[in-house]
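For reproducibility, we list the full input for the beta-D-glucopyranose complex.
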Amino acid sequence: MVDFDLHFPAGFLWGTATAAHQVEGGNTNNNWHAWETSGPGHVFENQQAGAACDWWDGQRYLEDFDRAAEMRNNAHRFSVEWSRIEPEPGQYDDAALQHYADMVSALRARSMEPLVTLHHFSNPLWLEKQGGWTNETAVGHFEQFVARVVEALGENVTLWCTINEPMVYASQSFLTGHFPPGKKNLVSTYRVIANLLRGHAAAYRAIKAQQPNAQVGLAKHQISFKVNRPQLIHAPAHDVIRHFFNRAIIGGLLTGKLRLPLRTFRVPEAKDTLDWIGLNYYYRFAVGFHPLYPQQFFIRQSRPKTGILGPESVGEIWPEGLFEHIRWLSDVTRKPLYITENGVADPDDTLRPLHMVRSLCSVWQAINYNAPVKGYFHWTLVDNIEWSEGYDPRFQFGLHTCDRETQERAKRRSAELYGEICALNAFTGDMAQRYVPDQFDELFPGVDVQANVPLDSPDKRQTNEMNRI
Ligand code: BGC
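The corresponding predicted structure, in tokenized form, follows.
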């Protein structure tokens, strides 16, 4: 019997994360609906979100929040859908706002802290018609929308996430063309990144004007990279892409200067607009210089051939990467950090328990290096629509399944594991034995379970980890 416990700090938030378009259903007034219905080829098998998880008309968020409560979650991250709240510019829908206020009350009634995301990939059609985030007027529109949401949800929400994954949104929508409006244009990509940063800053101030004590942050998707060999040739490409994807926005938030390859934008209003930083983490890619990819700064990403392998189109699943990203983000921002998303696409639930354990060991290690991690939000509560991947079964990220025809849910085994972890605020040797018995030695090669460092003791160990990412 392995006898050890990896304890998490008192007050640690345990939850899952969701996004409006992916779970609500019936969102027909946004850019994603337009994209889904204007295919072919935009979404896997030309699918549409349809009723999704029926959180809107059928109010099935209530039963799913029960599932979260059953997993002993004390928090939940969800997003509000701009196109519902403001269906036409300047026209606000009070019933939609009330729906979100009800969701917040439902969470509070289950003793769960709401973390509300204000922008998660979807835009109202009217905004899209004005050029979306390529047009700087989006910033003012977003500011007014945010002010209205904060007014409606009031003091029941104090944890706000302004924008989900600005770099993913900008590059998928304007560089790779996988998201609407499906463009491949570097100039637009840059403009969008700058405007999202401005939008974040405007939202930060709009929230603080009403709620000076609110905690406002942003969810940043970080990718781990491996440099192709020979490193001498490929390292510069790695440095460019790592800066572009992982670091430029963070630099903008810290200094007010958004330094993108070959162009710097001054966004002074973004400086000091972060109370916490959110980390979304999934994959590692191999990168190197390639003469045939000028549009991607001559950089080619491929998936390394090792690690836990998920669906073909994604990178290597390498949970240990969490450690380096937590360390770097908390070191440079000096702010509390939430893991705002982390999970794995795994319909059979064969990888998920191991992935969860390896991820949480990484988080625990970072905490023991004094990183101020305040919570972990697993992606996701129930299977839902995965953007351009649609309802492709290979992209099922849920702790629970969701049958699209019947709306029936079933609990995956990893939901049981997550429930045990959340209930104890710890991962124990007993859980390891029961959920991942075959992988124990492989799992804990670097974790000295005997020398469990107390959480409140300053850890003097030095690492050059920070310089490696
Ligand atoms: C997004 C989610 C998405 C998840 C899994 C994240 O980048 O924020 O909306 O479902 O990845 O791919």
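The radius of gyration is 21 Å. The longest strand covers residues 276-289. Both points were considered when choosing residues for closer inspection.
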